[in-house]
Amino acid sequence: MIAGFCSLAAAELVSALVRPEAGPVTAVGGAVIDRSPAALKEFAVRHFGTSDKLALELGIVVLLAVFAMAVGVLALHHRRTGSAAVLLFGAVGAVAAVGRPEGSAPDALPSVVGAAVGAGVLFALTGRLTTAPPRPPASGSGSGSGSGEAYRAFDRRGFVITAAVATAVSAGVGLLGRRLTSSVQAGATASRHDLVLPVPDSPAPAVPAGTGLNIRGLSPFFTPNKDFYRVDTALVVPRLDAAGWRLRIHGEGVARPLTVGLHDLLRREIIERDITLACVSNEVGGPYIGNARWLGVRLADLLREAGVRLPSAGGPADQLVARSVDGMTIGTPVEAVMDGRDAMLALGMNGEPLPFAHGFPVRMVVPGLYGYVSACKWIEDIELTTFDAYDAYWVRRSWAQQAPVKTESRIDTPRSLASPKPGAVPVAGVAWAQHRGISRVEVRVDGGEWHTARLSAADNRDTWRQWVWEWPATSGRHTLEVRATDGTGATQTGRRAGTVPDGATGLHSVVVDVS
User: Fold this and answer.
1) Residues near 96 by beta carbon (within 8 Å), at least 6 away in sequence
2) Are residues 437 and 487 in contact, defined by beta-carbon separation less than 8 angstroms?
3) CA–CA gap between residue 147 and residue 379 (Å, rounded)
4) What residues does 385 pair with on adjacent strands?
5) Distance CA 426, CA 420 (A)
6) Crossing angle of helices 52-77/79-98, nearest 10°?
7) How does 46-76 read in b/e, with b if 16+ C-beta sit within 10 Å?
């Protein structure tokens, strides 16, 4: 265990000099995520929510501890073999780090150096436990239990000193690594703090009166940044310095490749829009949806400047592949980005620069599409290609190439298994069908007739809508269900389906006990 701690501490220091994402725990965790089947990923999101990455990292640390103890037992009997096993495990970390989509040769250094340190400490510590030659039989004794047997001599003082020195030094090394990482990230933090968002050239229309229904337990119309859902594969949230950020636009059908920085974007026309984002991993009635006011630059304007044409107008590319600094790739239909909707490179979220966890300094936002095919965070590259030529990250893992958001609704209050009193009970929630809008919401009790709910005022067709139905509740256990109809007249299906390959379907229901 001590050798394992020393190994991780040394790796922490080296990863601070290379990049935090190259640390062995993060690298192995990233490799696990990359190779996990869709069903396992959905299990993690469903049971751990936005803490799925913490659960994975804790699991890796527990496995490392078990491995360390097993190697320690091996090293007591086979000293060199035990140390070699540590080096082998370091090689696994190195391969995982280099094999990541954004990996490079230097990313192997933290795992290699950490393994070397761990192997050296283990070799030194087990050296304090030595096997002495057979003990000669005692004079006048028979074949006693100790005669001719090897015995283990424990150099207690030497072991304690070596262990204490190794632990103390490693603790200092680990703290130094943390300090170095913090100092490197301080520049990114300062660049976000110093970023002054411009006044939009095209501001969002004022939110109509009555958009928020002011009902206890109902989700607010705008989701605070701290509460906005986060579903991605980044074990370490990238912290980019705005001054050094660049975006490259290139590929098939790009007549004039572009490279732009943040200040280049700030000099362009800035738009402000209210847009609801949803994750394809959201189960029926799930929490992975949020509404925000976004500030940014129209992506279609940049693509036209680069000479990109719509596929329907003869353009050769039908897919835009956005790449993140953490290696994520997201494929978006070019037609959707350039069809007039407010697809943007977002710089701001709810009146402040993007939080680091939500893509600072720049991310993509495309209304009407699930996040895995539109919402690239920490974006650094846009390549124009075709769906036939390239499968993005999630498509290679059994998800659909294209995924417009489905018409969905959710009951926020009363909660499942709540115990309201008989009488008038407000049943309220949200409904969404981005880029189509919501025209009607209905609620029914115990499979009976559908009742039309009262809708809040509509902000725009790219945001969710709140709704409420006053239920004359009677005593007993009841099941409440909700369904929505979008702006095209299509009603939400009641057919249950899981999230894979293009989003869950079915009606959200809650069971309550009125008493």
Assistant:
1) 24, 27, 28, 30, 31, 111
2) yes
3) 72
4) 319
5) 10
6) 150
7) eeeeeebbeebbeebeeebeeebeebbebbe
- Total Cβ atoms within 10 A of residue 507: 19
Nearest alpha carbon to residue 291 among 362, 350, 217? 350
Question: Does residue 365 contact residue 228 with C-beta atoms inside 8 Å?
Answer: no
Tens digits of per-residue pLDDT, 318-331? 999 999 999 999 99
The rounded distance, in Å, linking the Cα atoms of 308 and 252 is 9
CA of 405: how far to CAs of 366, 429, 438, 481, in Å?
A: 11, 18, 13, 21
- Strand-pairing partners, residue 350, are none
DSSP letter at 240 equals -
Q: Considering only CA atoms, which of 258, 344, 241, 234 is closest in space to residue 295?
A: 344
Q: What are the tens digits of pLDDT across the range 286-306?
A: 999 999 999 999 999 999 999
Task: Kindly compute the dihedral angle of the four CA atoms of residues 343, 346, 349, 355, in this order, to the nearest 10 degrees.
Answer: 140
In sign, the C-alpha dihedral spanning 405, 411, 415, 417 is negative
> Cβ contacts of residue 283 below 8 Å, gap of 6+?
46, 499, 504
pTM > 0.70: yes or no: yes
